Amino acid sequence: MKKSVTIKEISDQLHIPRTTLNEWKQQYSDFLPSTGEGRSKRFIDPDAIEVFKTIAKLKKSDHSTEQISRLLQNTVPMMHQIDHQEPAPFLNALDRIAAEIKKTNELKEKELQIRMQEMELQRQFMNQVVEQAAASSLGKAKRWWPFKKK
């Protein structure tokens, strides 16, 4: 079992003020493995310490909060405390969303087929119009000059 530490212990170990660590704790809580709530919150050692070290290095390199969050998302797994009873409703919600997406996709597919049929009918009509115009212009030769013959 991994050891847990307080903000004060992390502060002493990393030589970073507790107020700074508390600010980072609020900003990057999704990336900090912890147990407990509120004042009794403790962080999992050495994982949380590594995350705090990474944040400190990035802050010293003048990275913004958003940049640090993006970098942490790519390197540190998000730490969500999930109750063992919670996945069932979550999975049910995902199933409902998947069913809605499937239904929407089927409707869009039908709509696409209808539009393609309409476009084909329009293309056929245009071809008929062009053929009729070409046939009617064959009988009448138009002159390209504006004056009349004498």
Automatic annotation (TrEMBL):
Keywords: Coiled coil. It comes from the Bacteria. Residues 6-74 form the HTH merR-type domain. InterPro entries: DNA-bd_dom_put_sf, MerR-type_HTH_dom. The keyword Coiled coil applies. Residues 91-129 form a coiled coil. Gene3D superfamilies: 1.10.1660.10. This is MerR family transcriptional regulator.
